[in-house]
Design goal:
Length: 123
């Protein structure tokens, strides 16, 4: 049974930083593109960042490039999203996910999802 458990969300002021963590367990049967998505109420889910399980070629969306960094722990069991210089528009529920392909990520699809962690940025 695959479990993805996020932590690290919270409230922060504009310009602040947060680091989200996602503890992954269970065999993912090839869903080895680890990713972060976010969603605001009433809006479509947005892919924020993605990295293959090897750690190679991490991808971050243009909307967060230069501010967010995705990474994996050495054991590959924990996914991180370091978020710096946070803006009010970053306010959303953030979800950890595991996808089979990068194409799935681009289509906002994944095989496994965490429950989400709320990030609120206030001015």
């Amino acid at each position: 049974q695959v479990q993805l458990v996020e932590s690290g969300g919270g409230s922060v002021q504009v310009g602040g930083s947060l680091r989200l963590s996602c503890a992954a367990s269970g065999y993912r049967y090839g869903s080895d593109y680890m990713a972060w998505f976010r969603q605001l109420p009433g809006k479509e889910r947005e892919g924020v960042a993605c990295v293959y399980i090897s750690g190679a070629s991490p991808y971050v969306a243009d909307s967060v490039k230069g501010r967010f960094t995705i990474s994996l722990s050495n054991t590959k069991n924990t996914l991180y999203l370091q978020m710096n210089n946070l803006k009010p528009e970053d306010t959303a529920m953030y979800y950890c996910a595991a996808a089979r392909t990068f194409g799935d990520f681009v289509r906002n699809q994944a095989t496994y999802w965490g429950q989400g962690t709320q990030v609120t940025v206030s001015s």
